[in-house]
Amino acid sequence: MHTKNTIILEIFKDIPFSEDESIHIESKLEKLTIKKGDILLNAGKSVNHQYFVSDGCLRTCYTDNSGKEHTIQFAIKNWWISDYTAFFSTTKAVMSIECIQDAVIYKISREDMDALCVEIPQLETFFRKKMEGAFANFQKRILGGLSQSAKERYASFINTYPNIEQSVKNYHIASYLGVTTETLSRIRKELTKD
Amino acid sequence: MHTKNTIILEIFKDIPFSEDESIHIESKLEKLTIKKGDILLNAGKSVNHQYFVSDGCLRTCYTDNSGKEHTIQFAIKNWWISDYTAFFSTTKAVMSIECIQDAVIYKISREDMDALCVEIPQLETFFRKKMEGAFANFQKRILGGLSQSAKERYASFINTYPNIEQSVKNYHIASYLGVTTETLSRIRKELTKD
DNA sequence: CTAGTTTCTTATCATACATCAATTTTTTTA
DNA sequence: TAAAAAAATTGATGTATGATAAGAAACTAG
Predict the structure, then answer these.
(1) For residue B7, what are the domain limits?
(2) CB A14 under 7 Å to nucleic chain C
C-alpha cells in the first residue's frame, strides 16, 4: 500500500490519481532488477513493453549491416526506454535494449498502457506529453546532426546530459554521436586544451 | 454542414465523432490558402498553431549560425506540420515554416487542441498516435544519419517519399539529407548509371 | 520568343572524419 | 596484487563529402 504510492509518485510525479487508480496502475507495472550487460530486448523480437528506469543506465542500440553499433537513446533515472518504433507499430524490433549500469526498472505492456489510457485520461495526457518531449529531443538531435561538427555535437552532448556522461563509456558516446572512438578521443584531447 | 463533415473526415478519417463533436472540432479549424514562397512562421516567434496540409507542400527549415538552411520536415497532403519543439513547450520557434508549393491548409491552436483533447478522448488518442508515428520516423532518420552514406540516405528518401520528391527541389532534398547540392548532384549521376 | 532568374551540374582542391595498426591506460577478476 | 581484459589514445594514411568557381540547363515573366 505504501510502496504502491511510492512508485506511482516516482513515475507520475504530481498527477493526482485517486487511490483506486494508483492501485490499478501499479498492478500493471512489473519491477525488474537487472545487471550490467543484460539484454532486455533483442533486435528481431516483438516489442510489447516499455520500461521506466528507477535507477541505473540502459541504452537502445542498433547494429547496422556492416556490424557497427549505433546508440539511439540512453536512459537514466526517471527516463523511459524502448524500441518505440516497434513498440508503437507492432513491427519487430530493429534495436536491442542493453543494460549499461546495474538497474532497477518497471515495465508496462503496450496492451495495459492502451487500456489504462482509455480508463484514465490523465494517463493518456501524461504519455502524450512524454512523447512530445521525446519528439522535441529527437528533433534537436537531427538538427545537430545536420548542422554541427562532431566536436560541437560532443560539447552539446556533455552540456545537455552531464549525468549520462558519467554513467557510460566513451565508446557509447561515440556511437551516439555518430563518430568512431578514435575521433572522439581526439576531440576530447582538443577540448581539454581550450 | 456538409463541408464540416468533409474536412473532419479528411483530417480524422475513420474516427466516429458525434455530429456535435464534429461541429465543435471544425469550429476550431481555420482554413488558409497560401502561395509558394509564403512564410507561415518565422524563427524566433511564438508557435501557437499546427497545420494540417489538405493540398500543396510545405517544409520546416532551420537556419544555422553560418547561414546554412536545413530541412527538418516536409509536409504534403494529409500531413501535419509545425515547429513541434516550440509548439509543445511554448519556447520560441527555432525554425521557420515555408510554403514550397501553393497549398490549402487548416490551422488549429495549441490551446484549442488541448481543450478538445480533454473534451474528446478519441481526439487525444488521435494526436498521441500521430505523435508516435512522427517519433518513429524521426528515429529512423537519426538511425539513417548514423549508419548510412549520403548515397544510401538519398536512395532511402526517394524510396520512402516518392510523392515528396516530385514536389520539392533537389536543393530542398539536399538540405534534408544533410549534404550540399553539389554532392546530391553527383549522387544522382551515380545512381542513374546503375 | 527572348532575357533573366533559378536550379542543376561539373571540375578542382581542401578537410573532417574513417580506417588500420600499435601502444598505453584503466578496469576487472582471480 | 598480478594478470587479463576492456577501454582509450596516438600516429599514419585513405576517403567521402565540403568549398569554391564556373558554366549549362531549366524555368519564369515580360
Answers:
(1) 2-120
(2) no
Q: How far apart are CA A54 and CA A10, in angstroms?
A: 8
Nearest by CB to A89, which of B70, B136, B147?
B136
Q: Looking at the domain assignment, is residue B182 inside a domain?
A: no
Whether A55 and chain B come into contact, CB under 8 Å, resolves to no
Per-residue pLDDT reduced to its tens digit, B10-50: 999 989 999 999 999 999 999 999 999 999 999 999 999 99
Question: Is there a contact between A124 and B124 if contact means CB atoms under 8 Å apart?
Answer: yes
Least CB-CB distance to A134: which of B124, B135, B141? B135
Distance CA(A163)–CA(A161), nearest Å, equals: 5
* ipTM value: 0.91
The CA angle B23-A119-B14, to the nearest 5 degrees, is: 40
**What would the pLDDT profile of B48-104 be if each residue is shown by its tens digit?**
999 999 999 999 999 998 999 999 999 999 999 999 999 999 899 999 999 999 999
Tally of structural domains, chain B:
1
Report the CATH number that the domain containing residue A108 is assigned in CATH. 2.60.120.10
Query: Are residues B100 and B58 in contact, defined by beta-carbon separation less than 8 angstroms?
Result: yes
Which residues 151 to 180 of A reach strand C, CB within 7 A?
151, 178-180
Residue B115 belongs to a domain: yes
